[in-house]
Amino acid sequence: MIIFGIDTSCDDTSVALLEDGKRILSNIVSSQVDLHRLFGGVVPEIASRKHIELIENISRGAIEEAGITYQNIDVISVTAGPGLIGSILVGLCFAKGLSLALNKPLIGINHIQAHAVSIFLEREVDFPFIALVVSGGHTVILLMESPLRFKVLGTTRDDAAGEAFDKIAKYLGIGYPGGKIIEEYAEKGQKDYVRFPRPMINDNNYDFSFSGLKTAIINYIKKYGVTTQNINDILSSFQEAAFDVLTLKTIRASREHDIKRIVVGGGVASNSRLREKFLETGQKENIEVIFSSPHFCTDNGAMIAVLGYFYFKEGIVSPLDVKGYSRMMLH
For the whole prediction, is pTM greater than 0.85? Predict the structure, then answer.
């Protein structure tokens, strides 16, 4: 069985071909970082227009790299949401056209759910498990009961974690995307230089809020200034505050639901300090923490294909009028 996976949820155009839910035949990701760097963040109109320019050629490239033809495809799997709605509609409309032309079933995929099961591209994980999906657009804790069944335990009430990193990097004028740049500065800094707030860390829920933390660091910089000497320490302190909240709330969800496995995915999960904190804390709590490889943490068509595989195995497909959506339904 060959699954054709398409993801255009934000600013990466990605197409993958997956055989039998295991073997990646191709997985092409075209990044738009250089286009959006000038603005310090993703510009939705530019992103969607670029997807339109790229989607056909990237699809053809993925087919050629896999060494097959379009007629060999059994199922078309595509992100239906959440994400930037203009971007999502490009991939969704392309997938619908392909489904009609090839007379193949279509499956609309939840992008966050796909991040949570992307680990299956590399290894098997027993259910249930707690999944943290943490990226520029999303910060969500899920209780995964199976590849197709999950409960949302907590989400961000304002900025996603990666969004806060991007905004602080933009404020400081140090570049985009902010996550990787701040990580590089933070590696050279003192983690306890400033004790920034840990928002909602002791609240009786699994939700997050990063807007206040972002404001706290901006106010600190306005008050005390930033120099080539202290920027590493400030950013290291900020990163530590954000990662304390992510780690401790996810570990608490695992402990309180008596589930001894955590899977962490999404672009921010590539950060080496976040991985280190999770592994240290998980070891103390006797909880197994599993990360996807960095190239599967960022948006990619292969994770859309693997979730499509799980749906198709259960005989679940989408109607041709499946709608795109920008926000995740929390029920």
Answer: yes
For residue range 21-48, list pLDDT tens digits in order: 999 999 999 999 999 998 988 999 999 9
Q: How far, in Å, CA of 35 to CA of 132, rounded?
A: 29
From first CA to last CA, the distance across the chain in angstroms is 31
Measured CA angle at 25 (ends 60, 31), to 5 deg: 60
Q: Which residues of 59-68 are buried (b: 16+ CB within 10 A; e: fewer)?
A: beebbeebeb
Q: What is the pLDDT of residues 218-267, one digit of tens each?
A: 999 999 999 998 999 999 999 999 999 999 999 999 999 999 999 999 99
Closest CA to 219 of 176, 185, 168: 168
Q: Which CATH number fits domain 2-116+299-313: 3.90.1720.10, 3.30.420.40, 3.40.50.300, 3.30.70.20?
A: 3.30.420.40
- For the stretch 78-105, what's the b/e string if a residue is b when 16 or more beta carbons lie within 10 angstroms of its beta carbon? bbbbbbbbbbbbbbbebbbebbeeeebb
